[in-house]
Specification:
The complex is a heterodimer of chains A (about 280) and B (about 170). With about 280 residues, chain A is of the alpha+beta class. In chain A, about 35% of the residues lie in helices and about 25% in strands. Chain A is built from 11 helices and 14 strands. Chain A has a 5-stranded antiparallel sheet with strand order 4-5-10-6-7. The longest helix of chain A has 23 residues. Chain A is globular, with a radius of gyration of 19 Å. By secondary structure, chain B is of the alpha+beta class. In chain B, strands 2-1-5-3-4 form a 5-stranded mixed sheet, with helices on both faces. In chain B, strand 3 and strand 4 form a beta hairpin. In chain B, helix 3 crosses helix 6. The longest helix of chain B has 18 residues. Classes of the chains: A alpha+beta (about 280), B alpha+beta (about 170). The interface between A and B is medium-sized, with 32 and 36 residues.
């Protein structure tokens, strides 16, 4: 029971979503959505392909304050963008490890956060950078921090009659350092067992983003300033910041292993952020 | 009734197949595609292009890999209707003038066993070598990680791509 619609602009897309009365899903890359369609072929579903909408924000745009990602920004394009690599190394790195080449050519950043997997690879970095999400709906646009966007596994603040039109990532101040770490069972085409992004400001304030260790991607910090060149100080701040994690046991790892690896990945992310910069 | 790309007002409201235009291997086709049908099934079942293989149909294995407007994609994760107005290249399009040098290297290296994964492997390798003709073994393994081979012929597949990469560098 699948219908396919290709609205010509965002307004028409919102109308189609409203008419679909809860059974509409926005289609861009389709790498998660179409797998789901195959598994539930009899449910009523209106696929709203917005790629031909003429007034979509550009895939990638830079303002004086932020890098803005539109619905068509793919993992491949972000992972290869020189400005993203310079300003947001943790985001660029996470964009380069999702799925495979063919998946990354299709999968989008906004799709990744709207799918709202607790293990979404780009989410920890976006949270560390303080990204915000702009949602278009019948009443106009609203913007919220990404940390408020995730509500639970597969659940977000974006309503069934709304669509995410933009993610803004503020350009960090000079000297801000960041890195991404990920643990998988095999190198390619796997979901993260645990993933982590760390941001370190010039005065040693640490912010951590953590994935696959809670019902949503998590952000923790900012910490008090620490001496990031001191391993005991890093160990202390990791211990303090990862208390937000509530890992569970599943097909990819047991809870104790996940908990232990959360600390390891958080420490590595901080150390790598600092090393890369120096 | 033929529909233009992006003309949604009468198009696609229905569950019935929608007639759309899609270019495959340089040939323009007009074909009726039901909304749920993937590009993979469209290629194989509607257009008779069975070189593109259906294996997991879940985006895990890479057997269905094709180019969409020159970009490498899994055709099982693209709807047929999404390809309307776009340009698709399959393994048949790659080897229109006979086997390519890359395919010859697959044969020479003994990389082809049961053969089901090979069209996808060749498409992914072609994509890599177009961007990076001097790819080394590490880059090859990274680029090919979305293409599984259940015969586990990975060593020979990497060797074949390395040999082809050597040739392309020489030609340059």
């Amino acid at each position: 029971m699948v219908q396919y619609r290709r609205p010509r602009d965002v307004g028409e897309a919102l109308q189609v979503l409203a008419d679909a009365n809860g059974s509409g899903r926005v289609l861009v890359g389709g790498t998660d959505l179409l797998v789901g369609v195959r598994r539930r072929p009899l449910e009523p579903l209106v696929l709203v392909d917005i790629k031909a909408a003429v007034d979509l924000p550009p895939a990638i745009e830079v303002t004086s304050e932020a890098m803005r990602f539109g619905p068509t920004a793919t993992m491949s394009s972000i992972g290869a963008d020189a400005r993203a690599i310079e300003w947001f190394p943790a985001l660029a790195a996470s964009s380069r490890v999702v799925g495979s080449v063919a998946i990354r050519n299709r999968a989008t950043l906004i799709g990744n956060i709207c799918n709202a997997s607790p293990a979404a690879d780009t989410a920890p970095a976006l949270l560390v950078y303080g990204a915000s999400v702009t949602i278009a709906g019948p009443a106009g646009e609203r913007t919220m921090p990404l940390s408020a966007f995730f509500l639970g596994p597969g659940s977000t603040a974006c309503g069934p009659d709304e669509l995410v039109v933009r993610v803004d990532v503020p350009i960090p101040s000079r000297g801000h350092r960041s890195a991404f770490e990920r643990l998988t069972r095999r190198r390619g085409v796997d979901l993260a067992t645990v993933n982590a992004a760390a941001g370190v400001s010039t005065d040693g304030v640490v912010t951590l983003g953590l994935g696959a260790v809670g019902p949503t991607p998590l952000v923790s910090g900012p910490s008090s300033p620490i001496d990031v060149s001191s391993p005991p100080a890093v160990a202390d701040v990791v211990e303090q910041l990862i208390t937000v994690a509530t890992p569970i046991s599943d097909v990819r790892a047991g809870e104790p292993y996940r908990r232990a690896m959360t600390a390891v990945l958080a420490r590595r992310a901080i150390q790598r952020a600092v090393e890369v910069a120096s | 009734m033929s529909q233009r790309n992006g003309d949604s007002s009468t198009m696609l409201d229905q569950l019935a197949p929608v007639e759309v235009a899609v270019t495959v291997n340089g040939v323009d086709h007009t074909t009726a595609i039901p909304p749920h049908r993937t590009l993979l099934d469209t290629l194989r079942d509607d257009l008779g292009l069975t070189g593109t293989k259906k294996c997991c149909a879940d985006g895990e294995c890479g057997a269905c890999t094709v180019f969409l407007d020159g970009t490498l994609v899994n055709s099982c994760l693209v709807l047929g209707l999404e390809a309307a107005g776009h340009d698709v290249t399959t393994i048949e399009g790659l080897s229109m003038d006979g086997l390519t040098a890359l395919q010859e290297e697959f044969l020479a290296a003994g990389a082809v066993q049961c053969g089901v994964c090979i069209p996808g492997q060749v498409m992914a390798a072609e994509d890599l070598l177009r961007a990076n003709p001097a790819a080394d073994a590490t880059e090859i393994r990274e680029a090919m990680s979305g293409n599984l081979c259940r015969c586990a012929g990975y060593e020979r597949i990497v060797a074949a791509i390395q040999a082809a990469a050597g040739q392309r560098v020489e030609i340059r």
